[in-house]
Amino acid sequence: MKLSIEATRMTRIKPSASIAAKALANELVAAGHDIVDFTAGEPDFDTPEHISAAAYEAAKRGETRYTPTSGTVALRDAIRAKFARDNGLNYDRNQILVANGAKQVIYSALTATVEEGDEVIVPAPYWVSYPDIVLLNGGAPVIVTCSQEAGFKLTPEALEGAITAKTKWLILNSPSNPTGAVYSREELIGLGEVLKRHSHVWIMTDDIYEHLIYDGLEYVTLAAAVPQLYDRTLTINGVSKAYAMTGWRIGYAGGPRPLIAAMDKLMSQSTGGAGSVSQAAAREALEGPQDFVESSRQAFEGRRDLIVKLLNSINGTRCLTPNGAFYVYPECGAFMGKSTPHGKRIETDKDLQLYLLEAVKVAVLDGGAYGLSPHLRLSFATSSQRIEEGCRRIAVALEALR
Ligand code: PLP
Question: What is the pLDDT of residues 260-280, one digit of tens each?
Fold first, then answer.
């Protein structure tokens, strides 16, 4: 007899490593430890005042009731305008879906479409949740490793080699969490050439870090770079990262009508529409003044330069300069096989993560959680002072390894 309360499908997955690491860092801070926390997956800024005010005004107007499952008309129209303005993508209103964060968009898309055994191509390093959401829905994640030498990006050859008759989806994330890699228009066109040859493959592009892009690079999304793929691409985005709105839980997508309809049907029997006041706030974020997006982008670019410089000045670490998002993914192979001052051998990046937390109170994530080791993932969504202090401590800890 089965004793566990958990359904069998739950045994296929593990809790989100990034959420768990953040929770542990928070616990240690609450217990009085001086932790330098590089685990944050969210901007350290507050939501701009005009956005919060729009939510309050909506509540006062009585916009506190259920909304249509796929989102209010006003927000969906703001999203359509955003896609046209920023991405050159045109969608009808019934091609837009709003959900409780981009995470729910991804979850709904996979639940609504994946059959038992369907394959979903996930380039690694990947955002921790992709493989587990695939597994939970009975799919098989096909992990394609993208090396540091290739800038952590999927190549057309590697994509071609991963596609089989069972491939249902490719998940593409640019700028990437955890590496900050950004695909250029030419690179997307190269991947598009492969995808055009395999008409049974759908593509999910996770563009949540779209506005956090550096070095003057142009942001391009796949459905715009390769219009022939528009009919089988789900373009996912959200307000969490660009507008410091992670707690408001609003993500959205534009895509082919039959797919959006299937996701709407699923949400109508699970969560219903996203929160009404959050939707009013998201509408203001997309339609109101955009200066916060640029000022926070500039702040992140300065912090990126600082953290890359400091990490690369430590003997043994090698850190590529990310072109987007707010993460760095330094390689730490030089420390594998070394021992701590207490005589514990560092065998994996997970060991190194634990050592940094115990020895110098610096919280980071291990590359293993993101599908490519030996690496660490550090978020630079924290102040320059904390970045300097954290890197100083990391240097002390790494130099003490023998
Ligand atoms: N996609 C990526 C790549 C992310 O890093 C995150 C959050 O960390 C999400 C999606 C989820 O965003 P949301 O807050 O909209 O659910």
Answer: 999 999 999 999 999 999 999
CA pair distance 160, 140, nearest whole angstrom: 17
When the candidates are 3.40.50.2300, 3.40.640.10, 3.40.50.720, 1.20.1540.10, the CATH number that belongs to 65-287 is 3.40.640.10
Pocket residues: Cβ below 6 A from ligand 1: 41, 101-103, 127, 173, 177, 206, 208, 238, 240, 246, 251
Tell me the C-alpha distance between 311 and 8, whole Å: 42
Q: Which residue(s) pair with 119 in the sheet? A: 140, 167
Pocket test for ligand 1, best of 110, 127, 172, 174 (most atoms within 8 A of CB): 127
Nearest to 27 by CA among 361, 365, 401: 361
pLDDT at position 17, please? 84
Nearest CA, atom 16, ligand 1? 101
Is-contact 363 381, C-beta < 8 A? no
pLDDT on residue 92 = 98
Q: Where residue 4 falls among pLDDT bands split at 50, 70, 90?
A: confident
Euclidean distance between CA atoms 42 and 252, whole angstroms: 18
Return the CATH number of the domain spanning residue range 8-46+292-399. Answer: 3.90.1150.10
Does the predicted TM-score (pTM) go above 0.90? yes
Tens digit of each residue's pLDDT (9 = 90 or more) over 9-46: 999 998 888 888 888 888 999 999 999 999 989 999 99
Cα-to-centroid distance, 277 and ligand 1 (Å)? 20
Ligand 1 centroid – CA 102 distance (Å): 6
Domains of the chain: which residue ranges?
Answer: 8-46+292-399, 65-287
